[in-house]
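If you are new to this repository, start here. Below is one unmodified record pulled from the training split, so you can see the exact layout before writing a loader.
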Amino acid sequence: MLGWIAVAAATVFIGLAAPARAEVTTLRIGLDADPDILDPTLARTYVGRIVFASFCDKLFDIDEKLNIVPQLALSYTTSDDGKEVAIKLRPNVKFQDGEPFDAAAAKFSLERHLTMQGSFRKPELASVDHVDVVDPLTIKLVLKAPYSPLIAQLTDRAGMMVSPKAAKEAGDKFGLNPVCAGPYKFVERVQQDRIVFEKFKDYWNKDNVFIDRIVFLPIVDATVRLASLKSGNLDMAEGVLATDIKDVRADKNLVLVTALSLGYQGLTLNIGGDKAVGALSMWGKARQALDLAIDRAAINQVVFNGEFVPGNQWVNPEHPYYQQAYPVRGRDLAKAKALLQEAGAKLPIPVDFMVPKGAEAEAVAQVIQSMAAEAGFDMKIRVTEFATSLKQSESGDYQAFLIGWSGRIDPDGNLYIFDKTKAPQNVSQYSNADVDKWLDDARLVNALPERKAIYEKVTKQVLEDEPIIYLYHAKILIAHTVKLDGYKQLPDGLVRVMGLKLK
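And here is the target side for that same chain:
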């Protein structure tokens, strides 16, 4: 009898222990900065866009060839006069709070982008007069005028859809607990430490989501970030330094993926704000002199081992909208000195030079400082935490600001918000009536030759006025463990997690 009980107990014990829980897979991604607010209406940072890609789907996305493809929208049609755009929405989509995504929700999100105080999406959608609900899965955007970049804008934060219920309840605190319609659901954020997401079980494309959790870890120091990847504490690291390319390629446990960025790195100059003071704001010749003092090719070689692409425009030299009539010019120190003499500037010219904290940015700043000194500029480098530098640039508390732009697939996205009078990211406070008109004109036409001809006029004027001195176009450098399968890098720099698997 005792033997039977013992055997039965053992059988029961084995039966209880048998079911094994599947191991939870976690993808740990190292970021080179802590993102700003996780609200697509209010956000503006590049690393923030990387995080959004995992949890906040857009109406449209892009593919590897920069073609616009469906995401939350299935298709669109434009009226003959270009002033109405009807968008068909994907059926059976839910937000991460269980609320349905439909035409009413899409209308809410777009109107929120257009009307919310502090919205950075408002200028991107400024052509939209109003949004109509045609039927439960169709919206119609009625435009003030034809707007050629519209669908391209909807492949980014302007096209991100948020839960109306969550957004109404949270107001401007929505970014503390964001609710979208993407593959991963927000769990928690510890500032400067981690942002955690878990797989959303009701995602419309859940069969293509294979990793359970995504954890973003801001690690500002690129050397520490790469060391964490090598040690196995990270599975992916963005913002790999160009000087570390050989090291990554030599490591059999790592994979390096690259793409030439759609954006640029530049030197934004405060030339028109209330707080703009000094030679750079007073004289165009001083800005031209600073440009001529800089050797872009040397920056590329010294800081980036020749891996990046020197540039002088808001699109890279491989882009179809690059203006070949205005090629990158070499350094001309003699002409730089002559321009300062013509301007009557007292040398050396002191310049408050704000630089976001980071190894590469600081290295570039030091090279510029050295080059500019030979022409007669005293570039006083002020290293500033990234988010703080953005706030100070918005309030005009700087003279020169080393800041990049991650780029957009339409050239309008690299130019309009920086050079149009009073545009929200025009922190140089640049204003030129002709440029304003040309920027608006370029939005009215679709054909590349016609648009490019308009942008040629913009290029000529902006390169003369120089609110921004364009320096180079980076390569997007992302390293990941060989255990990660399926990762592809697109030129917009975003980390797309769909389809990824961890061995």
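Two things worth knowing about this chain: The mean pLDDT is 93. The domain at 57-164 is CATH 3.90.76.10 (Dipeptide-binding Protein; domain 1).
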